[in-house]
Amino acid sequence: MHTLKKLAQFVNQYMAAIAIVVTIVAYIVDNSFTSWIANPAVLGGIINVNHLLMIVMCGMGLTLKLSDFKIVFTQPKDIILGEIAQFLIMPLLGFAISWIFKLPPELAVGVILVGCCPGGTSSNVMTFMAGGDVALSVGMTGVSTILAPIMTPLLTTFYVGLYASTSASAAIQVDAVGMFIDIIKIVIVPIALGLIVNHFWGDFAQKITSILPLISCTAICLIIGFVIDANSAKLFVNGAMIILVVVLHNCCGYGLGFLIGKLIKMPPKKRNAIAIEIGMQNSGMASTLAASCFPSLALATVPGAIFSAWHNISGAIVANMMKRGMEKEKNN
């Protein structure tokens, strides 16, 4: 167990670098991941993208306690403002960037879907690194995830339809009901299971929590690897464009979140928490939903995979900048 803890600490510290290496290997080496992930010949196909995300979400649930949601009742204004910003900024940015760059429909769907997903789990770590309000970050992640079965299908349907009508592309069918069911099954149920285990078997959950970074990071990297490997040929043509769009989407999310915090005169800790929470998305969920809900649009899975690798790098950079900014504000 001690060795696993050490390995988990290493993986957690170098997650961004590991994700980049996985992305490069998956892009260069054909069938490096697709040969065994979701392959019926390997453990009956039990290792697939849906199951991997379920592991990540169950891990998130294991780190949560009912008391983490107390902030919803003690600071409802902050949570409401944060959630409005979360589900307003990132979906709108996803649509706007897709429209400005005239992305092919399958890529636009992927970018919009990333924007319509809830906050990412690693945002809580980045908020801590930024000296932000961790309780607010955890509360926002939890609430946005609970809202996701309703908000993600509704917003995806609206913005994908808007994109199709404004870009003169063919209509894209969005199975909102199917997406709702998938989010419940792949996201909400595993989180609830983890939360129940943590509540009734806290000692066991605490032991598991110490190695969760290893489990979660491994699952996320496998999702990235599978998606990149499965689409490496198309990425050769569209790779630079996808990377640029993903970077813009993520960075504009940070910037607008920070600006909103400034405009409504939030304390620096809360401002930093909201900015990071808005910029970092549950992009693994976006890739998984793209694969299950848009099977005919292969490239729709890719923006989420690239976002997963990139936002861990940008999150660490932004957190460091925010930390320094807070120190300057204190000294002035």
In short:
The chain is mainly alpha-helical and 332 residues long.
Question: Mind explaining what this structure looks like?
Answer:
It contains 15 helices and no strands. The radius of gyration is 19 Å and the shape is globular. With 332 residues, it is mostly helical. 78% of the residues lie in helices and 0% in strands.
Summary keywords:
single chain; 15 helices; about 325 residues; mainly alpha; globular
Low-confidence stretches: none
Multimeric state:
single chain
Query: What's the helix-strand series?
Result: HHHHHHHHHHHHHHH
How big is the Rg? 19 Å
Give the tally of β-strands: 0
- The portion of residues forming beta strands comes to under 5%
Backbone structural class: mainly alpha
Task: Give the CA-based shape.
Answer: globular
How much helix is in the residues?
Answer: over 70%
State the helix count.
15
Mean pLDDT across every amino acid position: 90
First-to-last CA distance: 47 Å
Mind summarizing the main beta sheet? none
List the topology elements.
Elements: H1 2-13, H2 15-28, H3 49-62, H4 71-74, H5 76-100, H6 105-116, H7 123-129, H8 134-166, H9 176-200, H10 202-209, H11 212-230, H12 232-263, H13 268-279, H14 283-293, H15 302-331
